[in-house]
Write a structure and sequence with these properties.
By secondary structure, the chain is an alpha/beta fold. About 40% of the residues lie in helices and about 20% in strands. It is built from ten helices and eleven strands. The protein has helices at about 5-20, 20-30, 35-45, 65-90, 105-120, 170-180, 200-205, 225-230, 240-245, 275-290; strands at about 50-55, 60, 95-100, 125-130, 145, 155-170, 190-195, 220, 235-240, 250-255, 260-270. Strands 3, 4, 5, 6, 7, 8, 9, 10 and 11 form a nine-stranded mixed β-sheet that branches. A two-stranded antiparallel sheet has the order 1-2. Strand 1 (about 50-55) and strand 2 (about 60) form a beta hairpin. The longest helix has 26 residues, at about 65-90. It starts with 6 loop residues before the first helix and ends with a helix.
Length: about 290
């Protein structure tokens, strides 16, 4: 590689990897398909190796492309964070702040909180990433994170602001039909809702419910929102936040004396963003709002 390829080429490369086709990447980037194709050809020429193979399923990345992928994604994330920080300025609360939170927090808790922030700061825009994966703040995948696990990375500002209780719940008509279990052992005879794999935090929950494994669940999904929807639909017994379940009069706690867990709430940001008025404003507003969440 005699010359360093343009940043635009790597941005296009990351978009093609993410979208799976030239046309989809073009739509995502606001470019024409021929422009995207030229970018990929130019990057392949600079690297001296093919990055994609065409197939009936679309473009398939080569081994070299997969090796470059994490670095290209880091470049995209860093560029986006740089632009957000620059747009935030140093005085007025304006610009864009990227917030990441779990599905349940993003769906059940954040909307009224973010609406209140927006009412107070009309020049502030929020990008919300609803994901149960823990985004890497050091790589600037987000500016502020709401987490249910203590952050392990250095160079982060973290504030524990409260906690939420989780427990077993089911819809009342399901329990009328199948009966209320008298013990945790009785759960084996019920239609259970649980995880498909074991994302962060799931193993600790399963360890608190001895005898339950993946095969124990009649409905398996890693989406906490889908689990809650199934509980609300009367599919069976599942785990959800007790405070959220209490809002629905049709939902009933199951074995609350035998099983309950408390998850801490952490608000986290990168320490380099402490001087950003916009990011600090969102961080403080979230910390205050979640201090009362149970």
């Amino acid at each position: 590689m005699n010359e360093t390829p343009s940043w635009d080429l790597f941005r296009t490369f990351a978009a093609v990897l993410r979208e799976g086709s030239l046309s989809a990447a073009a739509r995502a980037l606001g470019l024409t398909q021929p422009s995207v194709s030229r970018h990929i050809e130019a990057l392949e020429g600079a690297i001296g190796e093919a990055l994609f193979v065409r197939s009936q399923r679309g473009l398939l990345p080569t081994e070299r492309a997969l090796a470059l992928q994490p670095f290209a994604e880091d470049m995209v994330a860093t560029s986006a964070a740089l632009l957000r920080t620059a747009a935030a300025g140093s005085g007025m609360v304006s610009g864009t702040v990227r917030v990441t939170a779990s599905e349940m927090v993003a769906i059940e808790h954040l909307p009224p909180i973010l609406a209140d922030i927006r009412r107070q700061h009309a020049a502030l825009a929020i990008e919300l990433v609803a994901s149960n994966l823990v985004g890497d703040l050091l790589q600037r995948q987000a500016d502020v994170a709401i987490r249910m696990v203590a952050p392990a990375q250095q160079a982060l500002i973290a504030k524990r602001v409260g906690a939420v209780a989780i427990g077993l719940h089911a819809r009342a008509d399901y329990l009328e039909r199948r009966g209320m279990p008298a013990s945790l052992a009785d759960l084996a005879a019920h239609d259970l809702i649980g995880p498909d794999s074991e994302p962060m935090g799931t193993r600790a929950v399963l360890d608190a419910l001895p005898g339950l494994e993946r095969s124990s669940f009649a409905l398996r999904t890693d989406s906490h929102a889908a689990q809650l929807a199934a509980i609300r639909a009367g599919f069976g017994i599942g785990i959800c936040q007790s405070g959220i379940a209490a809002r629905d009069p049709a939902l009933v706690p199951v074995l609350p004396q035998a099983f309950t867990m408390t998850l801490p709430i952490w608000i986290v940001m990168h320490e380099n963003l402490r001087s950003s008025v916009a990011v600090r404003t969102v961080f403080d507003a979230l910390a205050e709002a979640f201090a009362g969440v149970r």
